[in-house]
Write a structure and sequence with these properties.
The protein has about 500 residues and is of the alpha+beta class. It has three domains: about 100 residues, Uridine Diphospho-n-acetylenolpyruvylglucosamine Reductase, domain 2 (2-Layer Sandwich); about 140 residues, Uridine Diphospho-n-acetylenolpyruvylglucosamine Reductase, domain 3, CATH 3.30.465; about 220 residues, Vanillyl-alcohol Oxidase, Chain A, domain 3 (3-Layer(aba) Sandwich). Strands 12, 13, 14, 15, 16, 17, 18, 19 and 20 form a nine-stranded antiparallel sheet that branches. A five-stranded antiparallel sheet has the order 5-6-10-8-9. Helix 12 runs antiparallel to helix 14. The longest helix has 21 residues. The protein starts with a helix and ends in a 13-residue tail after the last helix. Bound molecules: flavin-adenine dinucleotide and 2-acetamido-2-deoxy-beta-D-glucopyranose (NAG) (4 copies). InterPro entries: FAD-bd_PCMH (IPR016166), FAD-bd_PCMH-like_sf (IPR036318), FAD-bd_PCMH_sub2 (IPR016169), FAD-linked_Oxidoreductase (IPR050416), Oxid_FAD_bind_N (IPR006094). Belongs to the oxygen-dependent FAD-linked oxidoreductase family. This is FAD-binding PCMH-type domain-containing protein. Keywords: FAD, Flavoprotein, Oxidoreductase, Signal. One of its GO terms (molecular function) is oxidoreductase activity.
Length: about 500
């Protein structure tokens, strides 16, 4: 666009926008002046369009000035060094793993450079060591598929499409959490590119403080370029999706409440309770993801669920790859996730579903678009998860402060029409607030907020407890003295945004 100075001076908004865009262009130009030249993509290229289009939620598909797609840790290091030095230190950049965060700006940036790790997506297996080395651009489906050849697996995403990188940095709830703790508890080594461009290994013997901080501390320290995970022998399981009429709701809540307390006795089981409304069919239904991580059908721990009359079932003996290809949620929608954790209390569960039903009624009368889904998910968060974390050296989540079995609620709404953004955000945030208020009124609240499901108006890092907040702060400061990952990389949950 060309402006004569007189015209430009009249439209200050446009002028400042142009000036800003020019400065991010300097950052892209700096990358082009290095050996990374062929990896820089601009808006008119196929690589750029594919990268932006592959963010799971449509509302996070921002348009950076350029996308950089490095192929190796060395290239990530060169990118970081270049962006830290370029344009007087004013370059802003984002780090993208699988791009599954639902709020805009977590792993993408409108005016800056997005480092998209998608090309670094392979998994290799060292049979002798029992270690899978997973690159940060991988999706869990490809990890499971590779490892299935060896009849081993790793605890990871329960949907094959989810990205590895952010998932492991935020904790990671898996079908195996009752057996082995969170996914992050099973990482034995991280390869990390620091703000000064050095590439280090963080494990129990080397940079052990950073090793621990990465288990829940998210993108506050550097860019992880490889995760070495301890494998689980055997990837066969009994699992699938079972659907039910929503008239059976109370039976599921009673079964779920009891199941959470029973997990102590059987560490192979897992359950995700999904209350789902689909506008396209106008159906309000319930679906359970029931998984038993050894190949045994109908284990007794599921008896109270299998006693409930179902409308369909895909329960089968299969492997983790096959199962996680089935459990997907459509991409290409606008999405909001918002979450909270509660004491395992039946009244809070009932309230969860009451509010869910009421929000559906509110949406029905008010949407501009006619294609949307409203999910409310209930997931166990029992104390035994944390017992495993402690056995393995601990993480940042701070769950060891609690000695009760908990459950977690994820409110997950998806819609097509941008004109409904305000409505669904209001409904999701309002539903959560009402539920949290209710839980407080009966003393069944819990302050933990799971980072991987948190909305940008939530503060998951604070919910780790003040001791862990200070620990993360000190490790971020130690490994990134100039605060590159706080200021030049603004996306994600940042420790500098947490109050002292
Ligand atoms: C369909 C679906 C299913 C899900 N299933 C589960 C589940 O079963 N269990 C569960 O616990 N969670 C689940 N989640 C939540 C999931 O854990 C988070 O969305 C997580 O952030 C995904 O990681 P990502 O790499 O795709 O995200 P991204 O959006 O790419 O990254 C998340 C954050 O991490 C930072 N980051 C990414 N890569 C790196 C890196 N290499 N180094 C440093 N920082 C980095 C980003 O900058 C960003 O701030 C699911 C989400 C969806 C949408
Ligand atoms: C089932 O769905 C209907 C329609 O949304 C709702 O009015 C009703 O309360 C639901 N029933 C239960 C038991 O949740
Ligand atoms: C689903 O219902 C069928 C038919 O009643 C029953 O045989 C089956 O065991 C049920 N499956 C589950 C997982 O509950
Ligand atoms: C999973 O297994 C079923 C049954 O064998 C098969 O029909 C389906 O195609 C498999 N899915 C994948 C992704 O392999
Ligand atoms: C929750 O409680 C707060 C504090 O009492 C109150 O301001 C807010 O309106 C309540 N929100 C809802 C949705 O009930």
């Amino acid at each position: 666009m060309h402006f004569t100075p007189a015209v430009a001076a009249l439209c200050i908004g446009a002028l400042s926008k142009v000036a800003h865009a020019t400065s991010s262009q300097n950052c892209c130009t700096a990358l082009e002046a290095t050996a990374l030249k062929s990896q820089v993509a601009y808006p008119n290229s196929a690589a750029y369009k594919e990268s932006i289009g592959s963010y799971w939620a449509e509302n996070v598909q921002l348009e950076p000035t350029c996308v950089l797609q490095p192929r190796t840790a060395k290239e990530v290091s060169l990118a970081v060094s270049t962006l830290v030095a370029a344009d007087g230190g004013s370059c802003k950049f984002a780090v993208r793993g699988g791009g599954h965060t639902t709020w805009a700006g977590a792993s993408n940036i409108a005016d800056g450079v997005t480092i998209d790790l998608s090309l670094m997506d392979t998994t290799t297996y060292d049979e002798k060591a029992g270690i899978a080395s997973i690159l940060p651009g991988a999706r869990w489906g490809s990890v499971y598929k590779t490892l299935a050849k060896y009849d081993v697996t790793v605890p990871g995403g329960r949907s094959g499409v989810v990205g590895v990188a952010g998932f492991l940095l935020g904790g990671g709830n898996t079908f195996h959490t009752s057996r082995v703790g969170f996914a992050c508890d099973n990482v034995e080594n991280y390869e990390v590119v620091l703000a000064d461009g050095t590439i280090i290994e963080a494990n129990r013997d080397s940079h052990a403080d950073l090793f621990k901080a990465l288990k829940g501390g998210s993108g506050n320290f550097g860019i992880v370029t490889k995760y070495d995970m301890k494998v689980i022998e055997g990837d066969k399981l009994w699992g699938g999706l079972v659907t039910y009429d929503n008239s059976t709701s109370l039976k599921h809540l009673e079964a779920g409440h009891e199941f959470i307390n029973n997990l102590e006795k059987d560490h192979d089981a897992s359950w995700i309770g999904m209350w789902e409304y689909l506008s396209v069919t106008d159906q309000n239904m319930i679906a359970n993801a029931l998984e038993y991580t050894t190949p045994v059908a109908y284990p007794p721990i599921f008896d109270s669920f299998t006693a409930i009359a179902n409308t369909s079932s895909t329960m089968r003996l299969t492997n983790l790859w096959n199962l996680t290809e089935e459990i997907t949620q459509a991409n290409g929608y606008r999405d909001v996730f918002v979450t909270a954790t509660f004491v395992n209390n039946l009244d809070v569960m009932k309230k969860t579903v009451d509010i869910h039903n009421r929000m559906i009624e509110e949406a029905r009368g008010s949407t501009k678009g006619d294609d949307y889904t409203m999910f409310t998910m209930i997931q166990p968060w029992p104390k035994l998860f944390t017992d495993h974390s402690i056995e393995k050296g601990g993480n940042m989540l701070g769950l060891d402060r609690f000695d009760e079995n908990l459950f977690q609620v994820l409110i997950d709404y998806s819609w097509k029409n941008e004109a409904d953004d305000a409505l669904f955000n209001r409904l999701a945030n309002g539903a959560l607030e009402e539920l949290v208020n209710y839980s407080k009124s009966i003393g069944a609240d819990n302050e933990f907020i799971y980072l991987n499901y948190a909305n940008n108006n939530q503060d998951p890092l604070s919910s780790y407890g003040s001791e862990n907040v200070e620990y993360i702060r000190s490790i971020a400061k130690k490994y990134d003295q100039t605060g590159v990952f706080q200021t030049q990389v603004p996306g994600g949950f940042k420790i500098s945004a947490v109050g002292q």
